[in-house]
Design a protein that fits this description.
The complex is a heterotetramer, with two copies of chain A and two copies of chain B. Chain A is an alpha/beta fold. Chain A has ten helices and eight strands. Chain A is globular, with a radius of gyration of 19 Å. In chain B, helix 2 links the parallel strand 2 and strand 3. The chains are: A alpha/beta, B alpha/beta. Bound molecules: thiamine diphosphate (2 copies) and magnesium ion (2 copies).
């Protein structure tokens, strides 16, 4: 597969950005929550779902998307948001509950809306699926060559919304791609205890659409599968269902005791890290020097640092803003 | 409210005309739902639209309410202005999440950066023996959930103007019509099945109640079919010299609390009538509003008449027993005046 | 296939009973609704969904069921109810809203509950599917060799409840059979406008369970397919999804203008009537004389007449009963 | 209500103990839900049950609420007594149809021939910045729908007794606990995280409110976290010589209207506090009850304090602004006394 250098740059930079972002967030989230973990304390209270380890699916798909394509994500949205190009400062400020945030602090980590890049997400499992179909319907009705993507976990593939959304999209040949992130667990429940078949990609048969299974947590493999799916959608040939095997390095949310998985599982997973894998590929390709790659990494780190600094420095909204924005004019 | 027309329409035709006019005006408006195409909507609210606008803008859907209501949200987020029909409001339970956690909240979550200009349309109400899963009103449930405007018209005139306002509103609007008021040939629950409706498009502001009849002795607050019954009761009571003021809320959200309070300040007595369930609903909210803001004007305890917290039973005598009607309103008003 | 004579008797008698019942109901329903059709008038007001033409699926499946097996049906429930052995008098009285009815008039035609034979139904499309799975769960937990069956239309197969119910049942290997009645339409919407694939039976692949398509509206064909599925469930091997092609002779509900289908469609369908087909088979088998069959028909007619007479003669509940039975003690 | 024990438990442990004791007593009782097995329930309401009763009676489900809630109904109809956990009450929108059109109505449709003895358990409430899809109370919505009993405990003692009653009840019961009251180490929203709970099983009748504190000057009616705040406010107000009566409804359905009326007859002033949305909810119903049945006893307009019809915002200052708390109750009571 021939991946343009600029795409490799984008994917690598985004993967590193995501990783650094999530690791930074993991730290910041703990501020004020030690020695006793109290979810309501610190600069970032509330639930926190991190996506470190799951970078490939986000960057491999979003590398094919344009600014005006739409992405709808989940309760674990940072990697998708970053890969889709959501304003990192405003996103971080939102997660801190600051007035400079995407939603002036009203939405928080599970409710990031950036209409500039057509990104949104939701804390309700599976809800994104018909929503993405509807965005695709708008594109199709207006004959715009735009595509919508719904990302969701393997746990979400057992929700009724999955079935209804896929049937609609297939029936109406909508320009949408459904991407299942199979990180093996829905909170504590492993896939084999929630899903009657091994591979959700096989469920594409229930809608007469292509189903593609990407069995490795690898950005290039995702990139390839997604490329065909998105091109197909853009050509007006309808939806595709893609499932990607991936791994979640952190708990379901921060503070998760993780009693449901072997203590060494994550350590083993980290040995086969997808960022390192892409880096190896880039070096082997001869297109990149170590220094160039280090430059991308530095750039990513700096962006993340700036975003967190911006969030910290920003003010909280005035309490009375709570009463605003229920309706627009 | 002066109506400048002699043309009379059923509510069903008034709604379909409002939608058609807005579809002509604005290419972003489209309609989706079950049996809204060839069939014209089970209660005829979309009658004739398929012929006028074709299957690309009048879209029959599978029986997948979460699917197409979620899709309506997605389309609205990307610049369309969908009207999505949930055939019976009773069925909203299969897609409520899309409605109250997404359609109603995305604007707030995004601090107004995302608009959700869509209309959810649904039929409500009983009186024709369709039993407990096809006769509910449930508007109290939706009015409890922030982020949705809730429209409940009682006349063809209001139906058209409120529908046009709903479509033009940049916020999600739940538009619930009462089947028995639609003027359908096959469902003759009321005597006057038509009302004057101007041909040209017009709007009625969401959030303004309407005094459907002025009176001085007692205020009856209601919506939809309740207004119809209240007017009938008022005519009855007038014969005995009792002047009933009938206040039609027209929208439950926004709620025109001022109109309620002003009327009670005038009449000093309040009866709230609702075809929705009694407890934790519209009658409670209206009563509470008065107990908060006009308590000292009350000359008698507030009375409420609504479905007494039972599912709507099938059998006619049972259903008639639980539904508000004019005789029950007459009796309640008399009790109010004697207390 | 070797079908015992007693089974043929049962199936034929039930098919005729269903047909006569529905045709009688069609007439009775019109009482008080002429010359102007008014849904709220007559001895049987409200919606009325009739199943004439769809007898094979009901009798072919229920012929394998025992009294303590459970059936959950739909808004179009009479054929299932009759085939499951619901008390015809009490059922008819319920549909008339009489105090002698199954639910003392509270439920009506779409809400028939007969715990004696474990029959229930619902007016909400698709709702029966997870409910039947739950009944099967109860049987399995108590290690009882009982089976639950959910019947529903092809339109219902696009509801989220279908997906969730089938996944649960497959995952937990529940003794349940899912039967799709494909009568071609969901109210006015033809199957190809609602369903992304031609055959719902193929959706079984999404759950790793057998999917069987019965392409003819024929009691014996259904009987054969259902036999294996129910035996499999009873053996503890899990669910099966069966789809049966069938035909609806009446409108979706009585009063349906049927603008969505060709005027002659029903006439054509009636030429290939499933009752006649079974009758031919019975005569050809040599097991039955014309007289015997006529006897079964007479028996069926009489039962229906008696049921309607019972319903008519029964009293309405006292209005104040409306306030009873929201809760039991 | 005299508690005969010195043993103290958190509400989470009280609930898990109630369930365990009923599971021991009755083999028909089982539990299902997301992450209720190994994880013990996200809010620990099922902690320890898997170890005690094994995976056949403590069943982790897929994320398929319509599936497993519908299955719970089916199992109940066939003689089991399921307890099904909906992790957050906010998620009920994906399965509401099974709840209000089936679980709540099958008994009525069958005139009592079908019993639906199941408990739906769910977490509610905010205060820890989990935003609008994870912080709602929504009990007003369910209380509006006939056929469901609705339990909302405020103390570990009540939580256990009400859970045992709920499990033994032959009707469907929605049991909503407030996350902040569960006494979870990781969510310390209240100061007193434990309370006395007798070890032996006991029941508390559904439909009986409880005077959590006697007073003569003003009645504060609330549930769950609101009761906690009201008690704190009462202690504060006592310093100024104001005697607040705190009435904990404990169940919204059945609603103990008599207790409300009796208290208002004594104090002549009413404040209703709720963490659910203000309009068309619990505060309206309680206020209306008094306006109907004890109007003449009121010395001041009724006051209500609840979430002001906005989705629950994420940011801490915003969330704190909309949630009821002790200082807001103190202020409201003072206003009541000055009016
Ligand atoms: C409808 C609904 N049910 C339950 C939840 C609670 N919940 C949040 S995330 C989650 C697990 C999701 O698993 P999966 O889809 O695999 O995504 P992952 O967390 O693994 O990224 C659950 C059960 C929810 N948010 N919405
Ligand atoms: C959730 C829900 N949506 C819509 C309806 C309205 N409705 C009743 S029957 C029906 C068509 C059902 O079609 P199908 O499942 O094929 O069954 P059939 O009527 O053909 O027997 C519809 C849309 C409903 N009852 N429930
Ligand atoms: Mg997962
Ligand atoms: Mg059909």
């Amino acid at each position: 597969m021939n991946v343009p250098k600029s795409t490799l740059v984008q994917m690598y930079r985004d993967m590193v950005t995501i990783r650094v972002y999530e690791e930074t967030m993991a730290q910041v989230y703990l501020e004020g929550k030690q020695p006793v973990f109290n979810i309501a304390a610190g600069p970032v209270p509330g639930e926190m779902h991190l996506a470190a380890g799951q970078e490939p699916v986000a960057v491999g798909v979003c590398a094919h998307l344009r600014k005006d394509d739409a992405v709808v994500g989940t309760h674990r949205p940072h990697h998708f948001a970053i890969a889709k190009g959501v304003d990192l400062k405003k996103m971080t400020a939102e997660i801190f509950g600051k007035v400079t945030g995407l939603g002036r602090g009203k939405g928080g980590h599970m409710h990031l809306f950036d209409p500039e890049v057509h990104f949104s997400c939701s804390g309700i499992v599976g809800a994104c699926i018909p929503q993405a179909a509807g965005m695709a319907l708008a594109f199709k009705m207006r004959k715009e060559p735009r595509v919508a993507v719904a990302f969701f976990g393997e746990g979400a593939a057992n929700q009724g919304a999955f079935h209804e959304g896929l049937n609609l999209a297939a029936l109406w040949k909508l320009p949408v791609v459904f991407v299942v992130e199979d990180n093996g667990y829905a909170i504590s429940v492993p896939k084999h205890k929630s899903t009657a078949i091994a591979t959700n990609a096989d469920r594409a048969a229930a809608y007469g659409i292509p189903g593609v299974y990407v069995g490795e947590n690898d950005a290039l493999a995702v990139y390839e599968a997604a490329g065909e799916a998105i091109a197909r959608a853009r050509r007006g040939e309808g939806p595709t269902l893609i499932e990607v095997k991936t791994y979640r390095y952190f708990g379901h949310f921060q503070g998760d005791p993780e009693v449901y998985r072997p203590k060494d599982e994550v350590a083993r997973l980290r040995e086969d890290d997808p960022i390192q894998k892409l880096k190896n590929h880039m070096l082997q390709s001869g297109l990149f020097t170590e220094a160039e790659i280090a430059g991308l990494e530095a750039e990513a780190k700096q962006r993340v640092e700036e975003a967190f600094a911006f969030a910290r420095a920003s003010a909280y909204p005035d309490p009375s803003e709570a009463l605003m924005h229920v309706f627009v004019d | 409210m002066a109506v400048q027309t002699t043309r009379k329409l059923t509510m069903a035709k008034a709604i379909a005309e409002a939608i058609a006019q807005e579809m002509e005006r604005d290419p972003r408006v489209f309609v989706m739902g079950e049996d809204i195409g060839v069939y014209g909507g089970i209660f005829s609210a979309t009658d004739g639209l398929l012929e006028k606008f074709g299957p690309e803008r009048v879209i029959d859907t599978p029986i997948s309410e979460t699917g197409f209501i979620g899709a309506a949200l997605g389309a609205a987020a990307e610049g369309m202005r969908p009207i999505a029909e949930i055939m019976f409001i009773d069925f909203a339970g299969v897609c409520l999440d899309q409605i109250y956690n997404h359609i109603a909240k995305n604007t707030y979550f995004s601090a107004g950066n995302v608009n959700v200009p869509l209309v959810l349309m649904a039929a409500a109400g009983g009186g024709y023996n369709d039993a407990g899963q096809h006769s509910q009103c449930l508007w109290g449930l939706f009015a409890h959930l922030p982020g949705l405007k809730v429209v409940v018209p009682s006349t063809p005139y209001d139906a058209k103007g409120l529908m046009i306002s709903a479509i033009r509103d940049n916020n999600p609007v739940l538009y619930i019509f009462h089947k028995g008021l639609m003027g359908l040939g096959w469902m003759t629950l009321i005597k006057d099945t038509t009302g004057p409706v101007p041909e040209e498009p017009y709007t009625i502001p969401l959030g303004k109640a309407d005094v459907k009849r002025e009176g001085t002795d007692v205020t009856v607050v209601s919506v939809a079919m309740g207004v119809y019954h209240a007017l009938e009761a008022a005519r009855e009571l007038e014969k005995e010299g009792i002047q009933v003021e009938v206040l039609d809320l027209r929208t439950l959200v926004p709620l025109d609390r001022e109109a309620i309070i002003n009327s009670v300040k005038k009449t000093h007595r309040l009866l709230v009538v609702d075809e929705d369930y009694l407890s934790y609903g519209m009658t409670g909210e209206v009563a509470a509003t008065v107990a908060e803001h006009a308590l000292e004007y009350l000359d008698a305890p507030i009375k409420r008449l609504a479905v007494p917290d039972v599912p709507i039973p099938f059998s006619r005598p049972l259903e008639q027993f639980v539904l508000p009607d004019a005789p029950k309103i007459v009796a309640a008003v008399k009790e109010l005046l004697n207390s």
